[in-house]
Amino acid sequence: METDFNTELKLKGFKAYEVDGNAAGHNYSRKDFYKISLTSGKYNFHYADRSFDTDGPLLFFGNPRIPYACEVIRPTVDGFACLFTEDFLKLNDRTASLLESPLFKIGGTPVFILNDTQTESIKAIFQKIIAEQDSEYAFKDELIRNYIQLIIHEALKMQPSENWSRQKNAAARISAVFFELLERQFPVESADRPLELRTAQDFARNLSVHINYLNSAVKETTGKSTTTHIGDRIIAEAKALLQHTDWNIAEIAYALGFEYPTYFNNFFKKKTGYVPKSVRATRL
Question: pTM of the predicted model, to two decimals?
């Protein structure tokens, strides 16, 4: 169902629906939108490097930057879900802080087990969202944003579930998150917007994990350091820019996060054994 909503999400930035019937799981991957869902099925969630088994009312917050998966144990489920883009909700600094709350961060807890009272309260908000979605009210988008923020605040007041379990493949999961985030920066499409994440520390900070934990997970999973993977990906992009654009060396250096062209030249030569100019000279 989420795939069918992609076009509408791109146009409107939002879609809400009722879950009723047989549910299908989805693979461990990064999604293209934020998701808040209220469901009552029995399934297993994998979120970043953690997993959670549930059987009952569950409130879940999904972040497009963090891969997650759902394994359905009992196919018959019911509930509600809403999908939205960051642009739809992020209209001011206050809203931005909500998207960066513990509900959506990799180190936070996006899963909440609800009691009957909490379930009915959240259900009522979802019903209002769906009703407004189909209404002709001129300011319905603003009202829907308020309802989404209300769900977020209600969740922040709840006691988060503590029944998370570390998996044997936790290193693989955090590595997958790292590679998802690394790849999101490419391809570089503008010489005026340099890479924001260039060091292992940058990625650890963005993922809200300790740098030693990130380095250990990536090394355990791949046999290479976080820094090596970052450097290799930057070199691959540098070669592509040298061969397929007319940007000068200084522009490419800046786009890849280097303050000075000489820093880029030294980095490139150290990694490849030759200077950037030689790559450009060989292109057809």
Answer: 0.56
